[in-house]
Amino acid sequence: MAKDQEEIIVDVEEVYSKTEHWVVENQKSLTIIIGAIVLMMVSYFAYKNFYLQPQEAEAQEQMWQAQKAFANDSLDQALYGNDVAYGLLDIIDNYGITESANLSNYYAGVSYLRLGQYEEAIQYLEDYDCSDIMVCAVALGATGDAYMELGEVDKAISYYTSAYGHTANDLTTPIYLMKAARAHQEVGDYGDALELFTRIKAEFPNSNEGQQIEKFIARAEGLSGK
């Protein structure tokens, strides 16, 4: 056998011997670690299947009536419920770990916005952890609307910018480009407003905003001196 091969075999045997020795010496610690990992996996499985899923199912069962009230513009009932059904705030309080409770933050925020309670609207909209592309944009835009109503135009612009920049689409992007542009115009940022109006004309000419954009561009050009 070649000398190099002998050295490789010796090295492997030495490593194996050291590893085996380490395992024997640390067998108790390894058993504890493996046991802890198994316990964590079993606990997560039990939590997900025997607690979280039933909670989600129960929350969804409660939520549909609040959603129906919201769709019918019965906003007080949607928020606070009645004698036979939970409202959105009840779902948030009682099922806080569920996706239904998370979505209830969105519905509650929009409900408060429609009711003119803007600080409450901001609170719940900012608590909403969005995942759906369209709903994310609307939630950000609605937060901007609430700040706009409170006279905090810079914050409104920040949220409108996030809303139109979230994911470009033909529905929400021109809406929030328009809102951002008009907010810029309100605080005298005519150049920024003109840039956004021009973008609507170029990118979304067939949108509702695009079909009336010429008058906004003309006004912004006049105000900006261009």
Structure commentary:
The chain has 226 residues and is an all-alpha fold. It folds into two domains: 1-129, no CATH class; 131-226, Serine Threonine Protein Phosphatase 5, Tetratricopeptide repeat. The protein contains eleven helices and no strands. The longest helix has 45 residues, at 27-71.
Q: DSSP helix count?
A: 11
Question: What is the helix content?
Answer: over 70%
In terms of DSSP E residues, the strand content is under 5%
Biggest sheet character: none
Q: What is the H/E order?
A: HHHHHHHHHHH
How many distinct folded domains? 2
Our measurement of the CA-to-CA distance between the termini, rounded to an integer number of angstroms, reads 89 Å
What does the radius of gyration come to?
Answer: 29 Å
Indicate the low-confidence ranges by residue numbers.
5-10, 42-48
Please tell me what the overall shape is.
extended
> What structural class do you assign from the helix and strand content?
mainly alpha
Overall mean pLDDT stands at 84
Q: How many β strands by DSSP?
A: 0
Topology:
Elements: H1 3-25, H2 27-71, H3 75-80, H4 88-94, H5 99-114, H6 118-127, H7 133-149, H8 153-166, H9 172-186, H10 190-203, H11 213-224
Helix pairs in contact: 2-5, 4-5, 5-6, 5-7, 6-7, 7-8, 7-9, 8-9, 9-10, 10-11
